[in-house]
């Protein structure tokens, strides 16, 4: 298993560096990494299943009560950062649920039905904000944290603080990195995209990896 993870990491770091921070790459091997002995991961089974996303969302809402810029957009970005940072550093996300690319950035696929469920149960209410089209979810119920470890909550807290002083637009822009750029709206985002690095790369390394891409028949634009 460790070897498979290392192979997956090697592939995504390679593709990440090849793309750089200003171009979009579409790799034929994104969903089929047979050459690297690994299949990409869109969902990670964890205790509690879908309930983990629901309770994590409630936790974030509670912890963001005093945040001036908190809304649905930032809720999605906080969960995204927590899940993918956790996967990058310990090979296990916080919620394990599947993410997709949306116009405003990555978001859990199940977020809309989860929010509808919470509203129907009276666990949250949505309030209007000064941002057109943006709503602020306010938690009425307390989250059930029985399935979360202290490490899980640490990743959620870090993500909350990372976005606390950022507006919805700033949070959205920050999430438009390689993991988002290499997908189309509605496409699922694999957890291995956590290995993408949005920092610029040295030109000599870019040229070297571009040559590798041509030799392997990968397409870049």
**Roughly what percent helix?**
40-55%
Strand order of the largest sheet: 3-2-6
Number of helices: 8
Cα-to-Cα separation, first versus last residue: 33 Å
Number of beta strands? 7
β-strand amount = 5-15%
Characterize the largest beta sheet: strand count, sense, and whether it forms a barrel.
Answer: 3 strands, antiparallel
Radius of gyration: 18 Å
N to C succession of SSEs? HEHHEEHEEHHHEHE
> Could you say which overall geometry the principal axes of the C-alpha atoms support?
globular
Which blocks of ≥5 consecutive residues have pLDDT under 50?
A: 1-35
Structural class: mainly alpha
Mean pLDDT: 83
Summarize the topology.
Blueprint: H1 2-19, E1 25-26, H2 51-63, H3 72-90, E2 99-102, E3 105-108, H4 111-120, E4 124-128, E5 135-139, H5 150-163, H6 168-174, H7 178-181, E6 188-189, H8 203-216, E7 219-220
Antiparallel strand pairs: 1-7, 2-3, 2-6, 4-5
Polypeptide structure, described:
The protein has 221 residues and is mostly helical. It has eight helices and seven strands, in the order H-E-H-H-E-E-H-E-E-H-H-H-E-H-E. The strands form three sheets. A three-stranded antiparallel beta sheet has the order 3-2-6. The chain has a two-stranded antiparallel sheet with strand order 1-7. The protein is globular, with a radius of gyration of 18 Å.
